[in-house]
Amino acid sequence: MKKIRSLFDFRLKSVSFFLQLVIGFLGIILLLVSLTLYAVSVQKNNVRQEVVKYNTLLLRNTMDSYEKHFKLIEKHMHVFYYSDYVQQLQREPHYTNSPEVIKNIQTWVSNPYLFIDNIVFYSNKHQFVLEKGTTTTPDIMFDVFLASERYPKGFWAEQFEETYNSRVFPADRFYTNLFRSRASELGEYIPIVFKPGRSQDFYMAVFLNAKKMYEAFHQSSNEDLIIFNEQGDTIFSRAGSESAVPLRELKPQGEPYFSRADQYFFYMTGKDSRMTYLHRLPVSDLASQTRLNLTMVMVIVAVVLLSILISFLLAARMNTPLKRLIQSIRGASDSEPYRSHIQEFDLIGSQMSDKKKILKQWAFINYLKDIRNQDSETAKLDFSDKAFVFVLFHVVEKHASSGVRGSFPSWLYYIKVFVEVGFSRSFPEAVTIQIEHNQILSLVFLEDEHHLRKLRDQLDEMKIVFDQDRDSGVITIAMTSTFHHFNQVPTAYKEAHERVGYRRLIDETQIVDTSSVITEALGFSPEQDKEFRANLKAGNAKALTELLERFFAQWRDCPIHAGAWLRFAETEMVRIRQALSYDVMNPSTLDEILANAEEKLQRCVTVHELESLLADWVKRIAEVIQQKKERKDAIISFVMEYVGANLEHDIYLQTLADKLNISSGYLSSYFKEKTGVNLVEYINETRIQKATDLLADSQLKIQDVAEAVGYRNITSFNRMFKKYTGLKPSDFRKNREPRSESM
Predict the structure, then answer these.
(1) Does one domain contain both 535 and 624?
(2) 390 and 254 fall within a common domain
(3) For a FRET experiment, which of 35, 208, 499, 659 has its CA 20 to 30 Å from that of 288?
(4) Which helix (H) or strand (E) holds 103?
(5) At a CB cut-off of 8 Å and minimum separation 6, what does 570 contact?
(6) In-domain check, residue 447
(7) Source organism's superkingdom (predicted)?
(8) Statement to judge: residues 566 and 502 lie in one domain
(9) DSSP of 285-316
């Protein structure tokens, strides 16, 4: 027992990975040799049958392709024949009816999958012919434009006497005789004549390109193919030097193939067309595929010997890389991934490197989002005490870019890859991730001032590249100050976003690496604000547009950052909503005009675009207000005027109904139907709107303002004011105080 165990242990110790590989390869070679010998022994009995099946299948595919195509052509052409334009042409074959039919013919002919070269309409009574390029007479058509030895002009005239709905005629070569000195060949066509209803005066002839159909449908090792119709006529032939076999000799055979003399004959008959398809294969071709010769034996022996040699070489070559790969996997350093000439080993090394990169990005995102776990803390230690900067790429898509360069997410992905590859070459430890739908953040580690200058130079190069793609959007590159510990990541992240806000509204790539930009707030002066509100309520589009033009002309050339411009626009949007009460404009209409306003503002690339957007909004709002004024309702006008004149008093629905001589229920539903809001909400909205105007006067106390608009309880006033404005009266008054002199 001990001897057996010791022998077993010795075997385990002595068999190395190299030897196991060699044994495994030799076992595979032995198995393959055995299978090869067995396959060769069976081959002589089976190859002949397989070749027959193969050629039968190829012929069946060819037949199915032709049959389906003939059926497709028949279906489409019947639809075309009964179209309005063709029927009108049949009734009145005149040149004025031909353009639309010619246009339709050209559409059919231009379809490369139908193989239609021409479609001809022939009217016997009017001796009128129309084809894809012109209208003419039968003489010119079939003697000049579409001449054929087999199908002269008389043949086409005889078809009016034939009694069939459609018929496929044998293929023939057609010529054009435009030049008397020589005829120009058009091609080999298969004519199909359609006479729905067996018309004796009008029919349609479709000319299929026989060569193109043959090249598309015939699949075989040789070119031999013959197609017979049911009467035994040869519809199409691509045969060798041997003469074609008559159809009557195929019918008695009964089998789908037979051999005669030195050829195999494969034939099939289509179910719908009753056409017979014939393919011939020389017996010598079939025998050559089943013969086992001396060359093949020598090749098998040589392959076996070569395989054994390659097995030893591969085993030796795989042994060392595997050891190095294991050492690379065990290593904890951030060195380059292990590279090998063996694809699988190289893939494993790349996957390990990618996994480390993904873990680092994952840990980085977790830290930015303040998500703590053991893995992220471990990954963070790899770069915890290195100097770094953030580079934030903020992308603004242009309005017309999606139809020019593809979708915005795809374009942003290419930008991310470009940035990631660029930084990885100069700064191997850099991490690049997409943090928002339009923002890419890169963490770049710096060793000294030389690296910082190198980074600035690389950003300048990126700016040149990005400027070439301004049709798709505009990119702002915000670079933070240098930070020296990873605990400062939140501060750096905040600084990167702040610096993005310091960009200018200009149509070019910007690099923002400082905060030295004018950051003063923008807004209308008190006088401009009053003018804006008054013209807005009056629906004066021209005055509003001129006011915006004056305001933007005043500030356009100043170095104002984008954040200030956007805050101005957002503030004015809020004021527009506050200034327009229900009696001035229906809230749903206002919401429709300002739909996706925030997104549209963020996509403004230049100050001019922002000005145009605001001008468009106020112009549309003013037009709606003006239209509403022009069609005022008598009942609604009375209610609004009464409410506006009696805000300091209690206003009851019944009182208004009595004054109008109608019931309170009818007045309530009528007001809601016409204005989109119920009467109580309108009264509250009007009171608060009036209160906002009174609060602009700093001499009035808030209690006095509340009583002036009908609120006896200051608590109720505060609650209602905040409901409609989002602010307490005191906070609203603070926001309404005059701006600094710099404004």
Answers:
(1) yes
(2) no
(3) 35
(4) helix 98-110
(5) 598, 601
(6) yes
(7) Bacteria
(8) no
(9) HHHHTT---HHHHHHHHHHHHHHHHHHHHHHH
- Specify the pairing of strand 473-479 against strand 510-512: parallel
Q: Which residues pair with 276 in a beta bridge?
A: 228, 269
Boundary of a domain, candidates 580, 599, 631: 631
Identify the helix (H) or strand (E) that includes residue 27: helix 17-81
Residue 86 covered by a domain: yes
pLDDT at position 155:
92
pLDDT per position as a tens digit, 477-527: 989 888 888 778 888 888 888 888 888 888 888 888 876 555 556 788 878
* Residue 354 identity: D
Question: Which sign does the torsion angle of CA 447, 449, 450, 451 carry?
Answer: positive
Tell me which H or E stretch contains 209: strand 202-209
Last residue of a domain, one of 584, 603, 631: 631
Same structural domain, 141 and 219: yes
Residue at 553: amino acid letter: A
Candidate ranges 178-192, 364-378, 574-588; pick with highest mean pLDDT: 178-192
Compute the CA torsion angle 325, 329, 332, 336 (nearest 10 deg): 50
Residues 683 and 593 in one domain: no
Does the residue 240 lie in any domain?
yes
> Cα dist. 123→97, 147, 150, 690, 727 in Å?
13, 18, 21, 83, 84
The answer to which of 77-91, 102-116, 389-403 has the lowest mean pLDDT is 389-403
Number of domains in the chain: 4
Residue 294 has phi, psi (to 5 degrees) of -65, -35
Q: Which amino acid is at 545?
A: T
CATH number at residue 689: 1.10.10.60
The answer to whether residues 639 and 627 belong to one domain is no
How far is C-alpha 271 from the chain's CA centre?
44
pLDDT tens-digit map of 35-88 = 777 777 766 667 677 777 888 888 889 989 999 999 999 999 999 999 888 888
Amino acid found at 399: H
**pLDDT attached to residue 301:** 81
Range of the domain at 586: 526-631
pTM of the model: 0.43
| Alpha helices, H only, 373-473 | 374-380, 402-405, 408-426, 449-467
User: Do the beta carbons of residue 531 and residue 575 sit within 8 Å?
Assistant: no
CATH of the domain at 268: 3.30.450.20
Give residue for tokens 């527009």: 576
For the segment 226-269, what is each residue's pLDDT rounded down to a tens digit? 898 888 888 898 875 455 667 666 655 556 777 776 777 888 88
- Break the chain down into helix, strand, coil percent, rounded to 5: 60, 15, 30
Claim to verify: residue 576 and residue 644 sit in the same structural domain: no
The answer to whether residue 155 is domain-embedded is: yes
